[in-house]
Write a structure and sequence with these properties.
The complex is a heterodimer of chains A (114) and B (114). With 114 residues, chain A is an all-beta fold. Chain A is 0% helix and 56% strand. Chain B has 114 residues and is an all-beta fold. Chain B contains no helices and 11 strands. In chain B, strand 7 (65-68) and strand 8 (75-79) form a beta hairpin. The radius of gyration of chain B is 13 Å and the shape is globular. Classes of the chains: A mainly beta (114), B mainly beta (114).
Chain lengths: 114, 114
């Protein structure tokens, strides 16, 4: 049973427009949610995180929104650039016995067209 | 910039053979993770080390997989015997301490079992 779900395998956006990547989770026992970015032939790299007690975190062009009642988070990229084209993984950090363990979604491939 | 090193980058092996992967984390990182990423899926944690000790290996198929980090620095993941279903990307990551939000990933080893 997937605890972190990314239901859109791909997304295509025009350069300069907003990219919105979505993620849903089923378990409330997460204390942080994270987004990782992965280019081909490279490992994932950390992008941005949000605490479960916050509803928004912003870092430059990247903003993550958390809706706890809906168990939903989203990553907004504004404005989108061709270099943002990558696979984006949503991840959640467990608490308790699995402290520090990350559970990843399947990823969404973002293509930003010039 | 310090990086996580992994070798080999690619490995092709026949089923029932033994295969081993090596990982050298960022210097000073106490926590090391091995993940498996099947095509089209997100990374899944196999084993987590804190220094030389295993913290979590609940998802490691122990009948065929083994992992060690003898001196608390580099680590080896072994599969014996390999099965067709083991074909995947094997990612190593490290972090300063257990529970750190940011994990630094290596480029991975792409395993193909024929």
């Amino acid at each position: 049973d997937q605890q972190v779900k990314q239901n859109s395998p791909s997304l295509s956006v025009q350069e300069g427009r907003i990219s919105i990547l979505n993620c849903d989770y089923t378990n409330s026992m997460f204390d942080y949610f994270l987004w990782y970015k992965k280019y081909p032939a490279e490992g994932p790299t950390f992008l941005i995180s949000i605490s479960s007690i916050k509803d928004k975190n912003e870092d430059g062009r990247f903003t993550v929104f958390l809706n706890k009642s809906a168990k939903h988070l989203s990553l907004h990229i504004v404005p989108s650039q061709p270099g943002d084209s990558a696979v984006y993984f949503c991840a959640a950090r467990g608490v308790g016995g699995s402290q520090g363990n990350l559970i990843f979604g399947k990823g969404t491939k973002l293509s930003v067209k010039p | 910039e310090a990086e996580v090193a992994q070798s080999p980058r690619y490995k092709i092996t026949e089923k029932s053979q033994a295969v081993a992967f090596w990982c050298d984390p960022i210097s000073g990182h106490a926590t090391l993770y091995w993940y498996r990423q099947i095509l089209g899926q997100g990374p899944e944690l196999l084993v987590q080390f804190q220094d030389e000790s295993v913290v979590d290996d609940s998802q490691l198929p122990k009948d065929r997989f083994s992992a060690e980090r003898l001196k608390g620095v580099d680590s080896t993941l072994k599969i014996q015997p390999a099965e067709l279903g083991d074909s995947a990307m094997y990612l190593c990551a490290s972090s300063l301490m257990s529970g750190a939000l940011e994990q630094y990933f290596g480029p991975g080893t792409r395993l193909t079992v024929t």
